C-alpha cells in the first residue's frame, strides 16, 4: 500500500515511512493511493470476533509491505491490552434507536487511546528496525497530549513535546500531561489557542532544517496511522447492530475532523453507513462550511467541551482532497487561501460531494448542559460535554436505522461541566485517584514560533 500527499508534490511512501514522516514534505497529509474494499461477507464475518481480530482484518491491507501478519497481530494485541474493558469499545443503549459507543476505557480516558496505543507500538517496531531517533511534537486541546505521553513515555530514541493552550484545557487534562515523571516527555503550556499550537507545529514541519535537525514527527491525526486505527470501531459497532445487513448512522463530536473522517473511510471501504453527522460546539467552522459552502476561520471561543475548541480542522484537508477529485494542486491553492485570507469558498462540485458524505449540527453551551442533564435523568448514564454535543446534535437524525453517538471521553475528565449540568462530580477511576496530589512539571512558552522552537531544541539537547 502506497500513500500520497493531499497537495500532490511529495514522494509517495509506504505505510511505515508515511507514519514516521508525519506531515508530508509539501505540507500535505498522507492518504492511501487506493482504498481496499471489504465485501459484504467479509464484513459479516467480523460479527462476534474479539476487537483485536477485527482490527487485524480491517487494517491489514493498509500496512502491507511494512509489517508482516504475525508482527502486526502481536502489536495490535499489545496495544489493546491497555484498554480496560473486555469489549474494548462497548455499546450502551440510550433509546430504542440511539446508542453510545464508549471509547474512553483506555489509560487516559479518551478515544485517542485507541489510535495512540497502537501507533505507539507501530512506532517502536519501526524505530527498532531503522535505529532512528525522533522528536514527536504534538498539538493538543487536551486529550491527544496525554494519550501521546502515555503511549511514548520512557521510550528510548523518542522525545515527546506536547503543546497545549495555557488555561484552555480542563484541570484533569492538564495534570495528565504535567505529572508523568519520565524524562523524555515534556508539556509546554503555550500562550494562545489550540489553532495556534497546531499552526506552529505545521510551521515547524515547513522549516526543513529544523525538521531534520530534531527528527520531527507528528502523532496528531496529521498522521495517517491515527486515522486508520479509528476506522476499526466504526466497523465493530455497526456489525454489532446488524451491519452489513442493516445500515447504521453515526454522530461524531468533531474538532480536528480525524474521527469522523475515519467513519467516512469505513463507509468508502464498504460499511453501510446511512448518515455521518458532524457535531460541533460553538466553534462551528465545519457546520458553517457544510451549510454555507464557505470555510472561514473565526476566533476560537472557549467552551465547556474544550477539546473541540478548534477552528482550523486539520483533517478537513483530506475530505477536500476527496471532494476536489484528488486534485493536489487545487487543495494546495485552498490551503494558501486559508493561510493568506483566512478562508476560502468551496466550489459547487466539492460542496455537493461533501454534503453527500456528511450532515452536521451544532450545540450551544446550554444545549450541551441540557444533554448531560437529560441523558442522566432518562438513562442514568453520565456523559462528558463532548459526548453531550453529539447526543444533542444526533436528535433530529434519529431513526429509521440505529444511530451510534461516539462517547469520546470519560465524564471525570470534565467534572466542572458535569457538576454544572447535574450537580454531581464524576469520580476519577481509582488508578488515578491521586492525580491531584502528584507534582506538576510544565514549561510556559510564548505563542511564538521561534520561542517554541528554542524550547524544543533546549529539551532535545538535554535528552
Ligand atoms: C473528547 C474529544 N471529543 C471529540 C474530539 C474531536 O475529535 P476529532 O479531532 O477527531 O474531530 C476530540 C478532539 O479533537 C476530543 O478530545
Ligand atoms: N481534540 C484533540 C485535538 C487534536 O486532535 P488530533 O486528533 O489531531 O490529535 C486533542 O484532544 O488534542
UniProtKB/TrEMBL annotation:
EC numbers, comma separated: 4.2.3.1
The protein's annotated pathway: Amino-acid biosynthesis; L-threonine biosynthesis; L-threonine from L-aspartate: step 5/5
GO BP terms: threonine biosynthetic process
The Threonine synthase N-terminal domain, residue ranges: 2-80
UniProt entry keywords in alphabetical sequence: Amino-acid biosynthesis, Lyase, Pyridoxal phosphate, Threonine biosynthesis
Catalysed reaction, written as an equation: O-phospho-L-homoserine + H2O = L-threonine + phosphate
InterPro entries: Ser/Thr_deHydtase_PyrdxlP-BS, Thr_synth_N, Thr_synth_N_sf, Thr_synthase-like, Threonine_Synthase, TrpB-like_PALP, TrpB-like_PALP_sf
Stretches assigned to the Tryptophan synthase beta chain-like PALP domain: 101-332
Cofactor: pyridoxal 5'-phosphate
Family of the protein in this entry: Belongs to the threonine synthase family.
Protein name: Threonine synthase
Record lineage: Bacteria, Pseudomonadati, Pseudomonadota, Alphaproteobacteria, Rhodobacterales
Amino acid at each position: 500500500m502506497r500513500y500520497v500527499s493531499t497537495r500532490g508534490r511529495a514522494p509517495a511512501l509506504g505505510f511505515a515511512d508515511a507514519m514516521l514522516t508525519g506531515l508530508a514534505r509539501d505540507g500535505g497529509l498522507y492518504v492511501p493511493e487506493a482504498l481496499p474494499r471489504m465485501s459484504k461477507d467479509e464484513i459479516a464475518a467480523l460479527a462476534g470476533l474479539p476487537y483485536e481480530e477485527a482490527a487485524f482484518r480491517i487494517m491489514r491491507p493498509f500496512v502491507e509491505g511494512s509489517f508482516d501478519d504475525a508482527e502486526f497481530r502481536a502489536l495490535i494485541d499489545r496495544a489493546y491490552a491497555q484498554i480496560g474493558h473486555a469489549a474494548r469499545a462497548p455499546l450502551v443503549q440510550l433509546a430504542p434507536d440511539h446508542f453510545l459507543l464508549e471509547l474512553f476505557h483506555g489509560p487516559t480516558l479518551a478515544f485517542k487511546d485507541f489510535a495512540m496505543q497502537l501507533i505507539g507500538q507501530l512506532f517502536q517496531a519501526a524505530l527498532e528496525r531503522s535505529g532512528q531517533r525522533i522528536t514527536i511534537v504534538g498539538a493538543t486541546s487536551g486529550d491527544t497530549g496525554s494519550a501521546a505521553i502515555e503511549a511514548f513515555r520512557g521510550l528510548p530514541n523518542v522525545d515527546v513535546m506536547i503543546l497545549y493552550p495555557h488555561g484552555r484545557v480542563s484541570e484533569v487534562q492538564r495534570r495528565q500531561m504535567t505529572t508523568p515523571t519520565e524524562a523524555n516527555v515534556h508539556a509546554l503550556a503555550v500562550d494562545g489557542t489550540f489553532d495556534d499550537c497546531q499552526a506552529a507545529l505545521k510551521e515547524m514541519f515547513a522549516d526543513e532544517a529544523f525538521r531534520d535537525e530534531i527528527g520531527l514527527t507528528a502523532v496528531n491525526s496529521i498522521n495517517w496511522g491515527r486515522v486508520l486505527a479509528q476506522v476499526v470501531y466504526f466497523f465493530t459497532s455497526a456489525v454489532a447492530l446488524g451491519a452489513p445487513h442493516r445500515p447504521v448512522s453515526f454522530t461524531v463530536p468533531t474538532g480536528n475532523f480525524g474521527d469522523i473522517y475515519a467513519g467516512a473511510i469505513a463507509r468508502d471501504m464498504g460499511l453501510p453507513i446511512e448518515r455521518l453527522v458532524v457535531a460541533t460546539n460553538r466553534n462551528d467552522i465545519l457546520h458553517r462550511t457544510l451549510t454555507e459552502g464557505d470555510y472561514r476561520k473565526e476566533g476560537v471561543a472557549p467552551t465547556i467541551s474544550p477539546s473541540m475548541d478548534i477552528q482550523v480542522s486539520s483533517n478537513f484537508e483530506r475530505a477536500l482532497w476527496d471532494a476536489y477529485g484528488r486534485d493536489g494542486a487545487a487543495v494546495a491553492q485552498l490551503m494558501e487561501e486559508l493561510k493568506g485570507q483566512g478562508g476560502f469558498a468551496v466550489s459547487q462540485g466539492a460542496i455537493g460531494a461533501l454534503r453527500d458524505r456528511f450532515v452536521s449540527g451544532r450545540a450551544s453551551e446550554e444545549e450541551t448542559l441540557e444533554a448531560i442533564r437529560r441523558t442522566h435523568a432518562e438513562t442514568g448514564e453520565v456523559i462528558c460535554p463532548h459526548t453531550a454535543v453529539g447526543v444533542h446534535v444526533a436528535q433530529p437524525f434519529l431513526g429509521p436505522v440505529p444511530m451510534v453517538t461516539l462517547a469520546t471521553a470519560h465524564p471525570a475528565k470534565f467534572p466542572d461541566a458535569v457538576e454544572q449540568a447535574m450537580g454531581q462530580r464524576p469520580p476519577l477511576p481509582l488508578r488515578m485517584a491521586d492525580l491531584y496530589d502528584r507534582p506538576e512539571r510544565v514549561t510556559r512558552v510564548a505563542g511564538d514560533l521561534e520561542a517554541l522552537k528554542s524550547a524544543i531544541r533546549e529539551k532535545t539537547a538535554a535528552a
